[in-house]
Design brief:
759 residues; alpha/beta; Rossmann fold; Arc Repressor Mutant, subunit A; 8-stranded mixed β-sheet; 44% helix; binds adenosine-5'-triphosphate; binds magnesium ion; ATP-dependent DNA helicase
Length: 759
């Protein structure tokens, strides 16, 4: 092998090397966390380019986030030089947008289509449901949206959904689906699920188009294959091809870990990994067993937890990085105490030079848990960044501004148009909007055309004032449209929107401090647009053939903005140097020297919803596995005895997952304080705080210490008199929900030590 090849293969183990060098048949690399799956994928691409003579344009690689895609491109470029930049490395969604823009005409769409996110989708479904006279209480738009999304993830179209419907809900969903889809088409828009589903349709229904892509892509590589859903699975198959069109199938390489499948709620199914060899009969499977990321202690803990999941293939994952530090456990009084502990510990690590801020991550189960950490980090001046949460692009003013841009870029975009019709207020009330929309529906024309008809008096029941207001709006949009036609800079168009609509002036004049934040956000958006334009003109167009929106154009800007995801804003350890806060879901694929996994309480993590549901519980356990295996050297696990949720304090039992970690791996810095007998030392920080070795007494493990029924009256040291309104669970996990009147309703665990007396 050449010296470059040696360099590409040098720091790989034999199994990894085989995966990199394998040629021909489809290949699945299955392996536990941190075993180098992503590294294999990156190296394989570099190897294809430098050793196997592949052209960058023949390579399609799919990653789970845009950020991961950018990093993979960078890595490959580091290995083989800048020509690597013209590969298609992207998420499923970005890849599909690219294909759909090129092929829009084939599907009777125009290539400036809008991409609807979940909020747009919900708005449109609300309109549709209203038109169908559905009771919004019985059929909330959210629920309908979830059902439609699930159908699309299974590649079920509206007609099929209708045929298959067996009950009232399914029939309603199918009905909404059908007219929702029609409205999307009229709006020249696609929702997120459509991006995948319509691309599959395109490839299946148009052999000539499929052949084009088969000829082009000789290599298809997919990371995080365990999180693909049925639609994505089919898309991969269609891209690879069967050879029936005379083009040999692409070489397929997928990597994944069934134990890290955490997107079942988006239809992800480990079936795609488990059945790979059935889907691709010639397939080669390669197992990786050495973990290069974590200490053996961390790995043993992760293995112990995930081994409790039923129906999984056991893997022998090992590390030769040594045992390293023990896991640190901490039982906090409440969530503030927990955050304080995390902050103190970070301070200590940084002061002692054991870690810097950029090497530290804090994970939690749900976004709302970040607030407490933020409060304390701000107070202590600890630099941090929260990934996700209420995102910049979800803020009202940002969405409003973008809706203007979208309506300008794609005048058929009804949702955007209706969003801004009377924002800022210009005298086009709900009634006027309804008149126009009814007219549009009746005439089967787009909302934009209906507005124009309104101006010339064709829309019935519209009063002259509304008509004038609409005329003003149409004129405004036409003026702004000239700038778009002319190809003005995005930032200039945005500035013009904010000026001429007086949107910004109105906020500036307000004395609500919130509105000042809104102005700042709008200015930030202008900055984003400005940078985008500068970048677009600075970077040469890499691919001539794509038919994409021109670099730096409004279309390209909107596309970028539509596809940003939480995970794309994960800070870089080196350049940003801040502590990263994120949910466990967002942490997938990442690694940090120091990890704080917080909120290990039954009802928080595992999530409340999973407590009675074995499938959901398995998914939560996989999430625990993902969380633990992000840590390289130090892992902290913490829980709070009491946590406020929805404004009410709730006493939560320890997460059952803590119980599954071998006791000898954890150094409990603080355990649950003992209140009264009986107490029991256990592996999960329940032990007595007394210095004497506590007596082993596991009796409470089987029975709740306090037996309560609904209706019982109780008194609690802290909350006073109360009445039991619900009892859940059994044994040590039994909890009671108690109404303490003025002190609120509290959920308490019923084990020994709870200062609760039945009256
Ligand atoms: P996950 O399941 O979390 O996505 P993964 O299997 O994709 O993990 P990688 O992220 O590719 O694992 O690798 C984990 C870490 O181990 C990375 O820091 C990577 O650089 C390192 N690594 C992988 N293989 C080797 C190797 N052969 N020698 C040294 N380090 C390696
Ligand atoms: Mg990976």
């Amino acid at each position: 092998p050449s010296s470059r090849s040696a360099r590409l293969l040098d720091d790989l183990n034999p199994a990894q090397r085989r995966a990199v060098e394998h040629a021909g048949s489809p290949m699945l690399v299955v392996a536990g966390a941190g075993s180098g799956k992503t590294r294999v994928l990156t190296r394989r691409i570099a190897h294809l380019l430098s050793e196997r003579g592949a052209h960058p344009g023949e390579i399609m690689a799919i990653t789970f986030t845009n950020k991961a895609a950018a990093e993979m491109k960078e890595r490959v470029a580091d290995l083989v030089g800048p020509r690597a930049r013209s590969m298609w490395v992207s998420t499923f969604h970005s890849m599909c947008v690219r294909v759909m823009r090129r092929e829009a005409k084939v599907l009777g769409m125009s290539s400036n289509f809008s991409i609807y996110d979940s909020d747009d989708t919900r708005r449109l479904i609300t309109l549709v449901a209203r038109d169908l006279d559905l009771d919004p209480k019985r059929y909330p738009a959210r629920t309908l949206a979830i059902h439609i999304s699930n159908l699309k993830n299974e590649l079920v179209d509206a007609a099929t959904a209708k045929d298959r419907a067996t009950n009232d809900l399914e029939r309603r969903v199918a009905e909404v689906y059908e007219s929702y889809q029609r409205r999307l088409t009229e709006s020249n828009s696609l929702d997120f699920d459509d991006l995948i589903m319509r691309t599959v349709e395109l490839l299946q229904d148009h052999p000539d188009v499929a052949e084009h892509y088969h000829r082009r892509f000789k290599h298809v590589l997919v990371d995080e294959y365990q999180d693909t859903n049925h639609a994505q699975y089919t898309l991969v198959r269609e891209l690879v091809g069967t050879g029936s069109d005379g083009v040999p199938p692409a070489e397929l390489c997928v990597v994944g870990d069934a134990d890290q499948s955490i997107y079942a709620f988006r239809g992800a199914t480990i079936r795609n990994i488990v059945e790979f060899e059935r889907d691709y009969p010639q397939a080669t499977t390669i197992l990786l067993e050495q973990n290069y990321r974590s200490t053996q202690t961390i790995l043993t803990a992760a293995n112990a937890v995930i081994s409790r999941n039923p129906d999984r293939r056991d893997k022998r994952l090992w590390s030769d990085l040594g045992d390293g530090e023990k896991i640190v456990g901490y039982v906090a009084d409440n969530e503030h105490d927990e955050a304080q502990f995390v902050a103190n510990e970070i301070d200590r690590l940084v002061d002692s030079g054991e870690a810097n801020n950029g090497e530290i991550a804090v994970f939690y189960r749900t976004n709302n848990q970040s607030r407490v950490f933020e409060e304390i980090f701000i107070r202590l001046g600890l630099p941090y960044k929260v990934v996700g949460g209420v995102r910049f692009y979800e803020r009202r003013e940002v969405r409003d501004a973008l809706a203007y841009l979208r309506a300008l870029s794609n005048p058929d975009d009804t949702v955007s148009l209706r969003r801004i019709l009377n924002v800022p207020k210009r005298g086009i009330g709900d009634r006027a909007e309804a008149c126009v929309s009814t007219y549009a529906e009746r005439e089967r024309i787009g909302f934009a055309q209906a507005l124009r008809d309104a101006v010339v008096g064709r829309v019935p029941m519209l009063n002259p004032r509304s008509r004038n207001a609409i005329a003003g709006f149409v004129e405004l949009m036409d003026e702004l449209g000239v700038m778009v036609e002319r190809g003005d800079d995005v930032a200039d168009i945005l500035e013009a929107v904010l000026e001429r609509t007086a949107y910004r002036a109105e906020l500036e004049a307000s004395d609500d401090p919130q509105d000042h934040t809104r102005v700042e956000n709008l200015n930030e958006l202008v900055t984003v647009a400005r940078e985008f334009t500068d970048l677009g003109t600075a970077v040469p167009v890499p691919d001539e053939d794509e038919g994409l929106p021109a670099e730096g154009s409004l279309g390209a800007f909107l596309e970028r903005v539509s596809l940003v995801a939480d995970a794309d804003s994960v800070p870089d350890a080196e350049s940003d140097g801040v502590v990263t806060l994120m949910t466990l879901h967002t942490a997938k694929g990442l690694e940090y020297p120091v990890v704080f996994c917080t909120g290990w309480e039954d009802g928080v993590f595992p999530h409340m919803r999973a407590l009675g549901d074995p499938a959901e519980l398995s998914e939560e356990r996989r999430l625990a596995y993902v969380g633990i295996t992000r840590a390289q050297q130090r892992l902290y696990l913490s829980r709070a005895l009491v946590r406020s949720a929805w404004g009410q304090p709730s006493a939560n039992p320890a997460s059952r997952f803590l119980d599954e970690i071998p006791a000898e791996l954890v150094d409990w810095r603080r355990v649950e304080p003992r209140r009264s007998a009986p107490s029991a030392p256990t592996s999960w920080g329940h032990s007595s705080s007394s210095p004497r070795p506590a007596p082993v007494n596991n009796q409470w493990k089987d029975t709740p210490a306090i037996k309560l029924d609904v209706g019982d009256r109780v008194t609690h040291d802290k909350y006073g008199l109360g009445r039991v309104v619900a009892v859940d669970g059994s044994g040590p996990r039994a909890t009671a929900t108690i109404d303490f009147g003025g002190s609120g309703t509290v959920r308490l665990m019923l084990i020994g030590g709870v200062p609760l007396v039945k009256l």
